[in-house]
Amino acid sequence: MKHFNIALIPGDGIGPEVVAEGIKVLKAIEEADKTISFTFKEFPWGCEYYLKNGKMMDDDALDILKDYDAIYLGAVGYPGVPDHISLRDLLIKIRKGFDQYVNLRPVELLHPDLTPLKNKTEKDIDMLVIRENSEGEYSGAGDWLFKDKPEEVVLQTGVFSRKGTERIIRYAYEEARKSNRTLTSISKGNALNYSMVFWDQVFEEVGKEYPDVKTYSYLVDAASLYFVSQPERFEVVVTSNLFGDIVTDIGAAITGGMGLATGANINPERKYPSMFEPVHGSAPDIAGKGIANPIAAIWSVSQMLDFFGLEEWAEAVLNTIKQILKENTYLTPDLGGSVSTDELGSHFVELLIKNRG
């Protein structure tokens, strides 16, 4: 029996709605496969908790979470709580505290009708973006000088350590080698004359250990253009915290929208739990209406299963997502359908179990 203990942070807006469908999938897998079991513990942290308690989560939250096998997060952010507080005091705090330095964001076209790009197929849009997730532009270093005075100055400092830069780039090379794909680095060395020149240098240094991996390097502006005009250029991509955040939203746009965007925050050494989340945000405008698209949250379940070593179930979940998109009858309004979040999730479970026989 393989048992996994999962911490749930449904969070804000549509987070609880889509997480509920992901849990539905995990419980169905548990019912169908008697060699697997899951337990869940839900925590009320998020913006509503902040408005009541003045903090996004308990002071000892990391101590509470550290012994779980994984964290399943719904969404963070809601009107009334500044974005820099909701992001930094929960999501980034967990990423940093648990050294989840690898952010995996698949940019994969699951059905040709979903892309707004002309004449692009599933074969053309199939990449994995590996984003540095612990430092860089999101390090939080800086200062605010002479506030509210004419000479006011703000400093936002990107932090690129040798350790942090080398380990994410090495992880990407390993992934490219393992999957026999090309590796592209995205930086901005022509303008950022310290951080990105260093990034490019480390990419070249580590690359000497991987002569079998074919590599490319693009400036982030050019890469953003190619994401739209020639996405087939990219297979495995490695980039910094900020650039990874931006280009993966472009990736979501060319593969069907944020309702299909998922991400995994990985601690490869497994010293701490990893965290899995849809990355569409809390969408407060549709919260409580029952129309949120749960596919990204379910895709993050596939990533979690893969991390647990349950590759067959992970693949089955992803294949079922593709089947639902192909059927085109059980889709939420954002994808042109009319079913509810719950209806899509229930139909998904039926198909998943049927397919597994």
Automatic annotation (TrEMBL):
It comes from the Bacteria. Its EC number is 1.1.1.83. Keywords: Manganese, Metal-binding, NAD, Oxidoreductase. It catalyses: (R)-malate + NAD(+) = pyruvate + CO2 + NADH. It holds the Pfam family Iso_dh. PANTHER family: D-MALATE DEHYDROGENASE [DECARBOXYLATING]. Belongs to the isocitrate and isopropylmalate dehydrogenases family. This is D-malate dehydrogenase (decarboxylating). The lineage of its organism: Bacteria, Bacillati, Bacillota, Bacilli, Bacillales.
